[in-house]
Amino acid sequence: MKLHAFEEKIVLITGAAGGVGQRVALDFLNQGAKLVLVDLNIALLKKQYKNRDDILIIQADVTEEGGVRNYVQEALNKFGRIDIFFNNAGIEARNNLIEDQSVEDFLKVLHVNTLGVFLGLKYVIPVMKKQNEGAIINTASSVGLVGSIGISPYVAAKHAVVGLNKSAALECADYNVRVNAIAPGFIETNLTKRLIEDTKENQKASEREQLFLNNIPLKRFAKVEEISNLIQYLASPLSSYITGTCVEIDGGRAAK
């Protein structure tokens, strides 16, 4: 999608080394944006974007407040503002029933997927309020709107993101800052691949994948470019009257 709305805009992306993060970064870059790319693992990003003055790459753990404060300040030091924030970093949960989930794994998923989103909002929102403009897109999930068997930590974390998104939108409305979330289903990324391969005993990965596909009316996983198209729309003036929403992009799964 070419919106011609991002020339010289400063776009901050967390989870930038993941499949969706990489594609979103590239699409914004191709439309003239300047990027601040944040991830814990930045080796791939440094290899992909060498010696570019329009791209700032920062290593940070989104669950550590000091690290989040630092990536926001570094973005301001480099570019002076933040126009668009794709609050995207996240991890998957182990495939276990609630009684078999460990407290350690539960808290780890909540820390990255919920605390990480909260901290991003905590430090980016004041910047955008001061600017009196900005667009924030939080990554929730289709299971942030419904239940799902076996990944309760992820479900809980993403439900929390949907709630944070609504509260942030209300708190930012007077400052011309829009806050929305996306609720993807399964996407053609390594994260989905790992989830499929995390099977129970005597279940093949191909069988598990088919079970997932059977529950999607469009009978396929989303392509990363389809997710990126939605993010660009929510970041652009085309969605200027949309805030506080969580847009489902799940092939019709939530409609069943």
UniProtKB/TrEMBL annotation:
CDD domains: SDR_c. Keywords: Oxidoreductase. It comes from the Bacteria. SUPFAM superfamilies: NAD(P)-binding Rossmann-fold domains. Belongs to the short-chain dehydrogenases/reductases (SDR) family. PANTHER family: DEHYDROGENASES, SHORT CHAIN (PTHR24321), ESTRADIOL 17-BETA-DEHYDROGENASE 8-RELATED (PTHR24321:SF8). This is SDR family oxidoreductase. It comes from Bacillus norwichensis.
